[in-house]
Design brief:
This protein is of the alpha/beta class and 449 residues long. The protein is built from 21 helices and twelve strands. The longest helix is centred in the N-terminal third of the chain and has 24 residues.
C-alpha cells in the first residue's frame, strides 16, 4: 500500500471510530461536554465501556500514526524528548491545585494561587500554561485559571481514586523511571530480575531503605501504602477494569475467590451486581484487616449476609481457599517475575476442582509483527488491528506498554504476552478456554487440563 493510500485509510479509521465513540457518549442520554467545563459525566464512572474503549484504541492509534506519518522526524523526536507533562502534573497533584480551584469556579489569579501553593508566580504561570495547553486546567482570562474536565476529575477527595492513581504514577513510577538508566548500568541490578533489584529499589537503597521489595517499602511508608490501595480503585476506572462485571457470565457461577483482591476493588461492585455470589477476598495479612474495615464501612450488608469472606494469603507459599467456581486475579501476575508467577499459578491450580475456572485479568502485550498477530487470531481469536495501524494498535494500546515499563521500574517484572500466559498455565496443568477482549485489558480463562 502506498503512503497516500495509508493516509486515506487512517483518515477513514479516525472518522469511523470517532463517530462510534461519540455515539457511546450519547447513549447515556447526554452530549459530550466541552473540555473547558469542570463537569462530570455518567460515562466517567461507568463500568460498561468496552465499546467506547474499542473505538478509542482505533482512534488513538490512527491519530498518532497519521500525525507521525505526516510530521518531519525532527518534530516528532523533539516532542518525545522534551515532553514535560509528568513534571508539571506532579506540581499540580502534590499541591492539590484542583482542590484549590474547585473553590473558585470562575477562576483564581496566578497571584493568589501562587500565595497558596508557595510557588513563585512567574514559574507557576509557566507550569499552569503548560498544563492548560494539554487540556489540564483552563486559562479563563489572562493569568486566571480554573478547573476543566480533566483537572476536575483529580480532586483529592473524590471516591474515583484518580488522585491517588496520579500520585502513585507521578511519584513511585516516575521517580523510578528517572533511575532506569543508572540501575541498568549497575553491575548488580542491571542483570538481575529479582524484585529487590528493580530500578525503584535501587533508588530506595540510595535513600537508606534496607528492605527487599516495593511491598516492603510500602509497609514502611504507611501513607504511600494507603495511597496505593486507593490508586487501585482509580485503576478500575482509568483502564476500564470494571468492564469485566458485564463481559463475563458471573450469573452462571456461585463462588469467586478474588486473589490479591486488595480492598475489593472488583469484588465489591461484583457483590453489588450479583448478590447471589459468595466472594472470598484473599490478600496479604497486613492488607486483610484494612479490607475488613473497608467493607464494614462501605458494604456491611454483604458481610452480615455471609456473602463476603476475608482470608489472608501469601500466594508464594500457600494455595487459596479450595473449591471455588472461579479464581480471579486482576493485575497480580504482572507484579512478579516469571519464576514467582509460576509458583502463584501452581498454587491456584492446587485449589481448583474439575469445574473451577482460573480468570487472569491483566494487560496483555500483543505482537508488533502482523504475521504473529494473524497466528494469534487464527488459534486464539485475538484479532490484530486493521491496517495500516500497527498490529497492536500502536498508541491505542500505549497504556499496556506504560504498565509494562511500570512493572519493570518497580518490581523487575512485566506485562506478558499470550504465549507467556499460556506457558504459565500449561506448566501448572491448565488449559486455555477463552480470551475475553475487554478493550483496554484482556482476561484469559483456564480450566484444569
Amino acid at each position: 500500500m502506498s503512503t497516500n493510500a495509508d493516509v486515506e485509510s487512517l483518515i477513514s479509521l479516525i472518522s469511523s471510530s470517532a463517530r462510534v465513540a461519540a455515539a457511546e457518549w450519547q447513549r447515556t442520554g447526554t452530549d459530550v461536554p466541552p473540555l473547558s467545563e469542570a463537569v462530570t459525566h455518567p460515562i466517567d464512572t461507568a463500568t460498561d465501556v468496552v465499546a467506547l474503549q474499542q473505538a478509542l484504541r482505533t482512534l488513538e492509534g490512527a491519530c498518532e500514526h497519521l500525525t507521525t506519518l505526516l510530521s518531519p522526524p525532527g518534530s516528532v523526536i523533539f516532542r518525545r524528548t522534551f515532553n514535560p507533562d509528568t513534571h508539571l502534573l506532579r506540581i499540580a497533584v502534590e499541591h492539590k491545585v484542583p482542590d484549590i480551584l474547585a473553590k473558585h469556579p470562575n477562576g483564581l489569579s496566578l497571584t493568589e494561587l501562587s500565595k497558596i501553593v508557595n510557588v513563585p508566580e512567574l514559574k507557576l504561570g509557566q507550569i499552569m500554561r503548560g498544563l492548560a495547553t494539554r487540556h489540564v486546567f483552563v486559562e479563563v482570562n489572562t493569568d486566571i485559571f480554573a478547573n476543566n474536565r480533566l483537572s476536575h476529575s483529580i480532586r483529592s477527595y473524590l471516591p474515583n481514586g484518580l488522585y491517588a492513581l496520579a500520585s502513585r504514577g507521578l511519584n513511585e513510577t516516575q521517580s523510578a523511571g528517572s533511575n532506569l538508566y543508572e540501575s541498568l548500568c549497575d553491575e548488580s541490578c542491571g542483570p538481575s530480575f529479582e524484585a529487590k533489584d528493580s530500578p525503584f529499589m535501587h533508588m530506595a537503597r540510595k535513600d537508606g531503605f534496607e528492605g527487599n521489595g516495593v511491598f516492603g517499602w510500602l509497609e514502611a511508608n504507611p501513607a504511600r501504602r494507603e495511597n496505593y490501595a486507593i490508586a487501585m480503585i482509580g485503576m478500575g476506572y482509568s483502564c476500564g477494569g470494571l468492564n469485566v462485571l458485564h463481559a463475563f457470565p458471573w450469573q452462571n457461577y456461585t463462588s469467586v475467590c478474588d486473589i490479591g483482591g486488595s480492598v475489593g476493588t472488583v469484588s465489591m461492585p461484583l457483590a453489588r451486581k450479583y448478590p447471589h455470589l459468595r466472594i472470598t477476598i484473599q490478600d496479604r495479612e497486613e492488607v486483610t484487616q484494612h479490607t475488613i474495615d473497608h467493607w464494614a464501612s462501605n458494604y456491611p450488608e454483604a458481610v452480615a449476609e455471609n456473602r463476603a469472606h476475608f482470608v489472608p494469603i501469601d500466594f508464594l507459599t500457600g494455595a487459596p481457599v479450595e473449591g471455588c467456581d472461579l479464581y480471579y486475579m486482576r493485575f497480580i501476575l504482572h507484579d512478579w517475575p516469571q519464576s514467582d508467577a509460576q509458583i502463584i499459578v501452581n498454587n491456584v491450580r492446587k485449589a481448583m476442582s474439575p469445574k473451577s475456572r482460573l480468570l487472569i485479568h491483566d494487560y496483555m502485550i500483543t505482537p508488533l509483527d502482523r504475521k504473529s498477530g494473524l497466528v494469534e487470531a487464527r488459534e486464539h481469536g485475538i484479532e490484530p488491528a486493521p491496517e495500516p495501524l500497527l498490529p497492536n494498535y500502536g498508541a491505542g494500546r500505549a497504556r499496556a506498554h506504560c504498565m509494562d515499563i511500570g512493572m519493570l521500574l518497580q518490581y523487575n517484572a512485566k506485562e506478558r504476552s499470550l504465549t507467556e500466559f499460556l506457558e504459565l498455565a500449561t506448566n501448572a496443568g491448565l488449559k486455555f478456554e477463552k480470551h475475553w477482549d475487554l478493550a483496554e485489558t484482556s482476561m484469559l480463562e483456564f480450566s484444569i487440563a
